[in-house]
Write a structure and sequence with these properties.
Length: 246
């Protein structure tokens, strides 16, 4: 930060409190850290599960594009502010500039808070980074605690299998094949899980991608731990002696 602020001070006049940061004033850093912590607790922490679910869903969509069509499909799947015309990725940016990778690769980072144009982070010694807006869907509002009625719908082996089969992300047709049900049934089960805040669904072209929310993943992990504890408890029980028969 000291290096970045010092560089910024060469092109514009900095306010006094920022100059203190640039000069390495520990008290100024302490105030900044305290302010950031307070802001995080008030504005970010209450919505963290929703933010994380959006990012993981976007990563699942990009990962699927990469697996299905390679780097070309991945770069073509990025938001409209980025356009892939091999071998050039055009990006809407506040200023006109060129970034040459020179064989260093490119790290793509979806951001929940990057709502307009992507941002590039570059260091000649490190891999260039492109921060782009994660996809925001109106139907994926911050998750609220599910009502008992919604949770009651989760009872049943099929729905549990659907939750476990979604894993790192899958389309409706893939989910249907994994569970052994029709596509309509898989879609209906995924919809119920989505209403309960356990699954997030994003549309990717003509298909939809289902991913687990942090709550869904935690519920799944808890179920596995419960089964393991039950198995250990059962295996540790002494065997009953069988009465002798006459």
């Amino acid at each position: 930060m000291h290096q970045e602020l010092s560089k910024l001070s060469t092109v514009r006049t900095l306010p006094a409190w920022i100059r203190s940061l640039a000069e390495g004033d520990s008290r100024a850093f302490g105030k900044l850290i305290g302010a950031l912590h307070t802001y995080h607790q008030a504005a970010i922490a209450p919505y963290w599960d929703h933010i994380q679910a959006q990012i993981e869903a976007d990563r699942a969509v990009r990962g699927r594009a990469l697996l299905d069509g390679g780097a070309d499909a991945l770069l073509s799947s990025l938001p409209p502010t980025m356009r892939w015309h091999a071998p050039v990725l055009e990006v809407d940016y506040p200023v006109d500039r060129d970034l040459h990778l020179d064989g260093r690769g490119l790290l793509l980072l979806p951001s929940f808070f990057c709502r307009r144009t992507p941002v590039t982070l570059q260091n000649p010694e490190l891999t260039p980074v492109l921060v782009y807006p994660a996809r925001h869907m109106s139907e994926t509002a911050p998750v609220v605690p599910a009502a008992p009625r919604s949770l009651g719908k989760l009872v049943g082996h099929t729905r549990s299998a659907v939750l476990g089969s979604i894993g790192g992300g899958c389309t409706t047709s893939e989910l249907a094949r994994r569970v052994g049900v029709s596509a309509a049934s898989a879609s209906q089960h995924a919809g119920v899980l989505r209403e309960a805040g356990l699954v997030l669904t994003l549309r990717n072209g003509s298909a939809v991608m289902h991913t687990l929310t942090p709550l869904g993943a935690a519920l799944l992990r808890g179920g596995h731990r419960g089964q393991q504890r039950g198995a250990r408890a059962q295996s540790s029980m002494p065997e009953r002696s069988t009465p002798a028969t006459m």
